């Protein structure tokens, strides 16, 4: 009998939503759940038959009540927690319409890339932040 159990695998579409002030939208998970109280980039599980882009648009509307445009992929991350394996497909997105509401989270906040370090994120998110910093440095260099 095989006693090693592999944790469930979730494929998650993640949005790095930019506004016109070059700030990124983050939200804080509700306390009590898994990784409750931590900040995250919004997104959610891809449903059967959905593209990553469709998933991100749907989740962002459901969680935050805003309309976004999904742009290019920033990074894909495979991460295994003790209870769960996740594949995060992270896309740059742009706010098109609406004001973010914390419909399924505790709080939402617009922050700059540099301010991201002031917030506590789940472990897998550190690679997203590192990728954003690299992009930010490239933007600075390119003018």
Automatic annotation (TrEMBL):
Residue span, Nudix hydrolase domain: 7-137
InterPro entries per UniProt: Mutator_MutT (IPR003561), MutT-like (IPR047127), MutY_C (IPR029119), Nudix_hydrolase (IPR020476), NUDIX_hydrolase-like_dom_sf (IPR015797), NUDIX_hydrolase_CS (IPR020084), NUDIX_hydrolase_dom (IPR000086)
The enzyme's E.C. designation: 3.6.1.55
Catalytic reaction annotation: 8-oxo-dGTP + H2O = 8-oxo-dGMP + diphosphate + H(+)
Obligatory cofactor(s): Mg(2+)
Keywords: DNA damage, DNA repair, DNA replication, Hydrolase, Magnesium, Metal-binding, Mutator protein
Keyword DNA damage: yes
Domain of life where this protein originates: Bacteria
CDD domains (alphabetical): NUDIX_MutT_NudA_like
Keyword Hydrolase: yes
Top class in the EC scheme: hydrolase
SUPFAM superfamilies: Nudix
Pfam name, any one: NUDIX_4
PANTHER family with a match to the protein in the record: 8-OXO-DGTP DIPHOSPHATASE, NUDIX HYDROLASE FAMILY PROTEIN
Protein family: Belongs to the Nudix hydrolase family.
Protein name as annotated: 8-oxo-dGTP diphosphatase
Organism of derivation: Nostoc parmelioides FACHB-3921
Name of the gene encoding the protein in the UniProt record: mutT
């Amino acid at each position: 009998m095989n006693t090693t159990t592999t944790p469930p695998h979730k494929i998650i579409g993640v949005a790095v939503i930019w506004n016109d002030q070059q700030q990124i939208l983050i939200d804080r998970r509700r306390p009590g759940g898994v990784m409750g109280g931590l900040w995250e980039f919004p997104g959610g599980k891809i449903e059967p038959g959905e593209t990553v882009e469709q998933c991100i648009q749907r989740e962002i509307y459901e969680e935050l009540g805003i309309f976004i445009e999904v742009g290019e992929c920033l990074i894909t991350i495979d991460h295994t927690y003790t209870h769960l394996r996740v594949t995060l497909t992270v896309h740059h997105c742009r706010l098109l319409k609406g004001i973010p509401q914390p419909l399924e989270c505790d709080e939402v906040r617009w922050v700059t890339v540099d301010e991201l370090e002031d917030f506590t994120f789940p472990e897998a998110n550190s690679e997203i932040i590192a990728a954003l910093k690299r992009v930010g440095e490239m933007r600075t260099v390119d003018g």
